[in-house]
Amino acid sequence: ETGVTQTPRHLVMGMTNKKSLKCEQHLGHNAMYWYKQSAKKPLELMFVYNFKEQTENNSVPSRFSPECPNSSHLFLHLHTLQPEDSALYLCASSNPGQGVVTEAFFGQGTRLTVV
Amino acid sequence: GQSLEQPSEVTAVEGAIVQINCTYQTSGFYGLSWYQQHDGGAPTFLSYNALDGLEETGRFSSFLSRSDSYGYLLLQELQMKDSASYFCAAPNRDDKIIFGKGTRLHILP
Lengths: 115, 109
Fold this sequence. Notes:
The structure holds 2 protein chains of 2 kinds.
Chain A (H helix, E strand, L loop, with lengths): L3 E4 L2 E4 L4 E8 L5 E7 L6 E7 L2 E5 L6 E7 L2 E7 L7 E8 L10 E2 L3 E5 L1
Parallel strand pairs in A: 2-11
Antiparallel strand pairs in A: 1-3, 3-8, 4-5, 4-9, 5-6, 7-8, 9-10, 9-11
Chain B lengths: L2 E3 L3 E5 L4 E8 L6 E6 L6 E6 L3 E5 L2 E6 L4 E6 L8 E8 L5 E3 L3 E6 L1
């Protein structure tokens, strides 16, 4: 098994649909992240969880709702998305040393298309 | 705020050496990381420099100068499989990492 696994790999959804992205890490890390990757833009940090507690929400619209039931699983619930939300959504995990992340491990991402 | 600037594209020839630069502006700086991402793949960690100087790992080396707020990734003996996007990144406090926009490396045979 790879370290960080994301499902599904591809998702097409309508603007009125509700769907969820799933991420699972098998590395024993304490922190998990959701990033959004759009063309020509930097990786945008959306949410950070450390020991299941959300420590960061970078002003993400409420149509994105994260859930972290335990330190190995992370979900991103999606509802009433817009076409501009189409992007690659990447999950990552790390073991921050004194709050500093020197290395993050990424999943393969979910390619989301909103139609 | 924080920002990391790197060129959007670089082209080099197979077997040659290429350097990808990164300049940063951060309110608190701990070090500079580099990641590689192939098309359709996940970003993978390459290196981390906490201190000034050159770190070498096989064909890849990474350099940091804190006084110049500058670093670079050096790729030697380029191979076609090195065609990818390369991101510099800076860890922040509170378990965060900020990424640059990435440099697309094109390798010509």
